[in-house]
Design goal:
Number of strands: 22
Strand content: 15-25%
Helix content: 25-40%
Shape: globular
Structural class: alpha+beta
Radius of gyration: 30 Å
Largest sheet: 16 strands, mixed
């Protein structure tokens, strides 16, 4: 929805935007665009999501903006400059109702996205309910998290998208993109947008997906992006180059609308005055907020008797500028509780699926270990299973127990390790996960992202560790201090039992 704010005065509250965005009782839209005057460009472009919050950029909106100002005769130019909160963009009208927009240069520095990470990388591991996913994180004027899926039509966009949007590593929330690669010049895409949910198309999401795919070496410019709402062509020549987006922009209808009444401003004085009309007090107008709180604590049924106050008292909105009534605040709190419960339930379901999958992998490993007949093949079996079934980049086995067969001491697993390292492993009460400690600096390459050290107990006469299995991953957060270690412990026990049979 695009509104001319040049030839008329437009001041919208979040409540009014939410009412207009309602697809049953309002006009219905994903974004509201305001056309304003600018001292820096031909126009200024403000964008509001359906929840009433203002955002910095919207690729599809930019094309609609260009079409609107031309059709409404606010300009005669085919190419215009537009001031946005994230910089100047230059949409250009093409033939056949197409519009090309220079979307600017993508940003990859975590602080600029914003995204919580130590360094900038082409991919990151994001932990969702004990199930890590690989994403690209970047900004196209607004933050995006892009992941690859096998089939975009069956991808869990609603459930996973909401979790990604609210993930704590994105302090300003994020748009979650689900990309299926058809070939190097064609992708299918669905996007769960922050503040709006899944939309039929997302211009900046299309740009972010293509940029991520090119950086991963999976796509080549130009790329056709097929969304449920239509197709876009994205061109990007690599780092430091601007992203060009071309797609349609067609007017559906135009008209006028009577705005819903604006909410009353929030002031403590106003709320106290309204409250005073219902509560008699010996102090007359000297009632304070603390006294109101004390009164309500001792009169728990007050709002049942004065329900109208719920719609007359206003509070600051917790989701941005503007105000909401006390009744709406209660509804919002209830909705947040429901969403939290839904998220917990979804976490439990996903964790259950993940545990079932891990359990089946552990079972398959135990069967293979039982079937193994000698020490040589056992070592390769462990390494192969950990890599193929569990996605471990590298693994290393080290033992310091005296084997029954002295010839085994020539095996790599019995290579000498420092006493300090042995003492550290013996001191562990459970597997250690995280960055590689200094005591293990000579074992496996330090460039690997994260490590797990699993103590092995091979002797039937001692509970003291007599070996260690080291797992390493390229992913920085694959093994971390907060993760559960039940399955790592179980893997260690199975491998300890298998090794004890041979040595």
């Amino acid at each position: 929805m695009v509104v001319d704010a040049i030839n008329q005065s437009v001041h919208l509250t979040p409540h009014q935007i939410q009412s207009l965005a309602n697809r049953h009782f309002g006009i219905g839209f994903d974004q509201l665009l305001l056309v304003e005057s600018s001292q820096l460009a031909d126009f200024k472009y403000r964008i509001f999501n359906a929840d009433g919050n203002e955002v910095s950029q919207c690729g599809n909106g930019a094309r609609c903006f260009a079409r609107f100002v031309y059709d409404q005769k606010l300009t005669t130019k085919n190419e215009i400059s537009v001031e946005t909160a994230s910089g100047i963009i230059k949409p250009k009208l093409e033939k056949h109702d197409l519009v090309t927009v220079n979307m600017g240069t993508p940003q990859f520095t975590p602080a600029d996205i914003p995204f919580i990470a130590d360094t900038a990388n082409t991919s990151y591991t994001l932990d969702l309910d004990c199930q890590p996913i690989t994403i690209a994180a970047l900004s196209m004027g607004n933050p995006h998290a892009v992941q690859i899926v096998e089939d975009v039509d069956t991808a869990p966009v609603e459930s996973i998208g909401r979790k990604i949007e609210l993930h704590p590593r994105f302090p300003e929330r994020v748009n979650a993109g689900f990309m299926q690669i058809i070939d190097p010049h064609h992708i299918k895409l669905r996007v769960f947008e922050r503040g709006s949910g899944e939309t039929l198309a997302c211009g900046t999401g299309a740009c972010a997906a293509v940029v991520a795919g090119i950086r991963w070496g999976l796509l080549s410019s130009p790329v056709l992006v097929t969304a449920r709402g239509g197709e876009l062509q994205i061109t990007w020549q690599g780092d430091n180059a601007d992203v060009m987006m071309t797609g349609p922009a067609i007017t559906v209808f135009s008209g006028s609308v009577t705005l819903p009444l604006a909410k009353q401003p929030y002031t403590e004085e106003r709320n106290l005055r309204i409250f005073m009309q219902q509560v008699s007090t010996e102090q007359n107008n000297a009632i304070t907020a603390d006294q109101v709180s004390e009164f309500l604590r001792s009169h728990t049924h007050f709002f049942e008797q004065h329900a109208s106050l719920l719609t007359e008292i206003y509070l600051p909105s917790p989701h941005g500028n503007g105000t909401i009534s006390l009744a709406e605040r209660q509804q919002l709190a209830q909705r947040d509780k429901i969403r939290t419960l839904e998220a917990i339930l979804a976490q439990m379901v996903e964790s259950g699926k993940h545990n079932d999958l891990t359990q089946s992998k552990v079972y398959r490993l135990s069967v293979q270990l039982l079937a193994n007949q000698n020490f040589d093949t056992l070592q390769s079996l462990i390494a192969q299973s950990l890599q193929q079934d569990f996605g471990v980049t590298q693994s290393l086995l080290r033992l310091w127990i005296q084997p029954n067969d002295n010839s085994l001491t020539q095996e790599a697993a019995f290579a000498t390790v420092e006493k300090e390292f042995i003492d550290w492993i013996i001191s562990l009460s459970q597997p250690f996960c995280g960055a590689k400690p200094d005591v293990a600096k000579d074992l496996l390459a330090s460039r690997l992202g994260s490590f797990a050290f699993i103590p092995l107990t091979l002797s039937a006469h001692s509970l003291q560790a007599s070996g260690v299995l080291i797992l390493a991953s390229d992913e920085e957060h694959r093994f971390n201090a907060e993760m559960g270690t039940i399955y790592l412990t179980l893997i260690g026990e199975l491998i300890s039992a298998a090794l004890a049979r041979h040595i």
